[in-house]
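ligand=glutamine
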Amino acid sequence: MSIIIGFPRIGEHRELKKALESFWSGKSSQNDLQNVAKELRKKHWSYQKNLELVSVNDFSLYDNVLDLAYMLGAIPKRFQQYDGLEQYFGMARGLKDSLACEMTKWFNTNYHYVVPELSRTDSYKINPTKIENEFKEAKALGYQPKINLIGLFTFVALSKIIDDTDFEIIFEKIKNAYFELLDTIKTFDSNLTIQFEEPIFTKGEDKRFYDKIKDIYNQIAAKGFKTIVITYFEHSTEATEILCETNIEGIGLDFIYGEKNLSSLPKIAQSGKTLYAGIIDGRNIWVANLENKLKTLEKFSQYLPKNKIILNTSCSLLHTPFGKDSEIKMDKEILSWLSFAREKITELEILESVFRNGISPSIKEKWEKNISINQNRKVSTKINDKATQERLKQPIKTQRESAFKDRIKLQHKALDYPILPTTTIGSFPQTPELRALRQSFKKGEIDSSVYEKGIEEYIKDCVAFQEEIGLDVLVHGEPERNDMVEYFGEQLKGFVFSQNGWVQSYGSRCVKPPIIFGDVSRPAPMTLKWITYAQSLSSKILKGMLTGPVTILNWSFVRDDLQRSDVCKQIALAIADEINDLQNAGIKIIQVDEAAFKEGYPLRKENIKTYEEWALYCFKASVSVAKATTQIHTHMCYSEFNDIIKTIEDLDADVISIETARSGNELLKIFADVGYSHEVGPGVYDIHSPRIPTKEEIIKQIRLLLEVLPKEQLWINPDCGLKTRKWEEVKPSLKNLVEATKEIRNN
Ligand code: GLN
Ligand code: ZN
């Protein structure tokens, strides 16, 4: 018996993305959209036909958390006047005067969910149509469905209570709606399996609700469902212990990212419950080592009878690409090591067969192929790079030459920038022409001289504009980059890119993460040419622009045969080489972006220290080659630093730019509170909105910042890169930024 926790919904060729975008732009009807959705569900169930049950309600037109909010009638006031899809998409994307609900990352993945807004005054009238339709569709096609439902605790914990209502009161309200939804589902089929997903339990105890778990799940089980509660992304031993005392049928645990779950096995066995063993990695893309998996399962069966062990993926396959069929260009050997969502289902089937029946003649060939792929991968020369491995054994410099207080004096002398220096975060607008230029070059339609000419033109205009408005520290604008990680991945050894390896990030948005398959090194300089070209155009200082090692790691699929920290070290050394080349070529300021530094934080408190240690080490290993006079900047795309401020200090970057534009000076205060001594550029306007900030607004914002930190310590910049904005927005905004700064300096 085996199942998957869920299947990706975007479609093999991103059919859902296309259907959504066409619907949103008014080019197709609601019916067209629903038809595409229906076809996708049908197709995705067909891949699960050999499994015990198919996943129903893992599909979504936008997001599952939003779906549940919608079904529970958790509709924020500003959307209550709308209905149907207009209301649903409105909550996700905003409507005329109604701001969209916030979006945030789903645990430690790169998937974003829409944050539900809860309030005492809402009525929570349920709307079960979605589940009903999908359930009936699956039934009509002859499948045995299991309904996927985000658990009550996870739902409430991830929601935002928007008034001052007490948690208890809100919980009670949502519980009533949730139970009503369950009662309705019960009417579809009296003998239904429901998979309640409670990843929130992996974060450890939560005082607000831990004492409710037993009672709530007993009540749910009493409704007569076959009730399975699953957790993923980490271990959930505390909650598992409680769940063992309930009347639910099964408990699902992640044995890939939650090794400690092993310690729960005796209790589960004692309780007589079925174990849903998350044993095939739902989040990464490597072919499973089925021999090892089998050994693990045999270990489990020392505790539980085999018929009490169900095999499944560690989490929904939402986080992996669809399948390998479209990968025509990738190196065949590397491709053979990969397993995307469809291939993972096959792995489950093979493992299932061998676990229950041994290596039967019909499975032998597949089993042996899996063994040989794994053996081949281990010894492949493509993975192992002696030089990189040797280099890692040598001492690595992780301290700058001199202390910050001495460096900064030297830097001020060498760089001679004014008080409240103005700069930007790196990228400038990516115009359709620019995208077309890069595309044609990639496809081989134009040769490198035409391409390079185009990029040079852009840089020339970009630098000229910055000089004209009087910014102090210039950038080249990043016209050669499609994406801040992909650009580096493409030039580093050890990385490979899929053609069709899309993973949903939010709504219709997908990303295609780079795949780190082998030892990483830098065969040649990656940014030197463009940065030095830009510098040659101006007598002002040009800031070099790199992506940091931790961010490159966190936004990639990372090999599973080496510690993440070691992979990160290899990337760090490659970045260090680049920094050295840049400074030797006369670049005096270099920014190392760590946009994803924070999102790599572990879910469990007890693991944070280890992450911080190696992430910090890697950042420092990449920047410590900088001479005392080379100024190192870093940029982080968020503003909440309270819990990580110590680590931010330890990064020892000369300047950090952050995103505080939307919160006045509130979130900057932590920097003052801890006596942060390095320089800071808190974003003075929000680049995520097309709005052009006025000079007065920016003046006001700078004044607010000056209430918190002295002028000697502050830089003035937008809060993130400008690549998603239009020139018509960027030009006046930056002009106002410079004017505002000048006015403050003069007063
Ligand atoms: N330098 C990058 C840019 O300006 C930084 C992007 C980011 O932090 N997300 O686009
Ligand atoms: Zn940013």
